Amino acid sequence: MTPQKLPNDIAYIRHFYRYLNIFLITPWYDFNSNTFYKPSLRKLYACFLISLKVAWLLNFFFSESVHTTMKSLLLSQKLLVFFSTMNLVALSLVTIVKTSFLDPPKWKAVIDKFLYIDAKLQVIDRQEIHLKWYYFRYFVKQVVFFAIFVYAFVVWTKSLGRSVIECLPMIAVSDYFYEYLSVMYLAEFIGCVRRRYQSMREKIERCHRKPGIVLELENLIDCYRTLGETVDLYNEIFGYQIILIIFHCGVESLHCLNFAYVFMVAPEKSSLLYHILAVDSLLLLQVLSNFWLLVIPVTAANQEAKKFLDVCYKLQEKYGMTSKEAEALTKIISYCKHFCREFNVAGFFNIDKTVILCILGATFEGYIEYLIIVLVQSLVQSLEIRYIDLNKRAVKISRNKKISQLRSLTHDFRILGQTVDIFNKLFGYHIILILWHFGVEMVSCLTFAFVPYISTDAHNYFNCGLVKLCIFFWLSYNFLTIVLPISSACKESKEFISLLYQMQDEFEEGSEEMGALTRLVNYSKCFMAEFTAYGYFTINKTVVFSFLANVATYVVITFQVDQSHYQQVITNSHNVCSVSV
């Protein structure tokens, strides 16, 4: 195949693309002939990388060191670690699979469209970035990234008390690197689109006084349409990767903020805790910078696309309404409005600056709620552990038949019961509001999930309904993390009373031991653990069924109301159409 002249901004950083070929973030591409090379070897190499990642994943699930470390974490912390790790692994696997097996023709189409646009615009030797300065900045970013993760890896090995080899199966450092390189490439790709929108705007500003402006405007219409198709290809190629990157930003932010909270409430702040806090702060900055590099270039590209339309409107005012130029501008404006494409995430939502505010708002809102849930969960688990210890001591005393030692146990049982009462007063209203939020959000999520089945425009609601279902399962999990530990603690409290009843069977009626045990049983019943939402209702497993029944009832009601509303809207629209006819 004859060599082709590539777009300057792509050919200029071809070494960066070849570097990404090592990790299969980009397909193996021959820049000189504008073709892919060795596709069979590329697929074989992709299978090798996938097998390595699957082997690491299996080792992560079955490693004793990982299990030992996870046992020391709270349930919510385990969930954050699991989601963060699985999200990064999924990002690596999705990138490799899409690059090697699914999307190579789309990559080729993107390069062809860039070539076509540059030929139409006659872009020759545009102002280029200085090569040395570009690679110097990239090298500095790489050095900073590796410095952060070397420091983090050293701190993690010290905090876990394990060697470097033992910690390798526990930390997805390579996946962090995959995410970083993917974000860098996405920013460069969006920059290519932005520069072409900018070239079109500059060209229409230069040629509006030339006699051949009508022909130039027709060429620009074609270029604008091709750029819109390029943006659609971008959404198809990178949509799911961007979802995973944004999700990881939120999870990692919660993870880092969670340790900041743990650091603040720690009774003794050792030097290792300060190092871990520094590592989490650096990781949070790294993740937020990735998010910034992902969103800001997209916003700049969208602004350039809108600036082109603004220039067309301004030029339209300079010509008469009946001139050929005005007609051509009217045509190009209508075409550009149709082909103005937004960067979106696989059809789920558009990417712009509002995503930053949404992520920040959702993160801090979720973090405050998460802190309350973690605090409630940790306190309930500590109470459960003390009840379990109390039951073990009671079993030992029952074997030795030393009734005199039971007084100290009942004293501890009374203190635990009073602690539960204090817990109810401290967190009663918090639990009410959290449960209320869960109920409202569950109704909202399930109702919206059923909208595609009653709407005439179902395909637009399907992705949003899928997201709402994911939110529903997440809220259900949070709901269970509150109810199940409380139910388990109450069960251990009742177990202590049942142990006292079993000890009564070992003594005769009327004996001093029997009388003492009866008094202790009656005394302990007064301080049995009962978790309530500030006295309004008792928190146990029956709350789960009550919530499910109420949520299902409200979902059915709202579903029927929405269905009748849609039918009424359709009937009214038919009536309006018949009247107009």
TrEMBL record:
Residue ranges the record marks as coiled coil: none
Record-linked InterPro entries: 7TM_chemorcpt
Membrane topology: Multi-pass membrane protein
This protein's GO CC annotations: axon; dendrite; neuronal cell body; plasma membrane
GO biological process, alphabetically ordered: chemosensory behavior; male courtship behavior; sensory perception of taste; signal transduction
Primary site of residence: membrane
Record's keyword terms, sorted: Cell membrane, Membrane, Receptor, Transducer, Transmembrane, Transmembrane helix
Domain of life: Eukaryota
Membrane-crossing residue ranges in chain numbering: 44-62, 74-97, 135-156, 176-193, 242-266, 272-296, 431-454, 466-486
Family: Belongs to the insect chemoreceptor superfamily. Gustatory receptor (GR) family.
Function field: Gustatory receptor which mediates acceptance or avoidance behavior, depending on its substrates.
Protein name listed in UniProt: Gustatory receptor
Organism ancestry: Eukaryota, Metazoa, Ecdysozoa, Arthropoda, Hexapoda
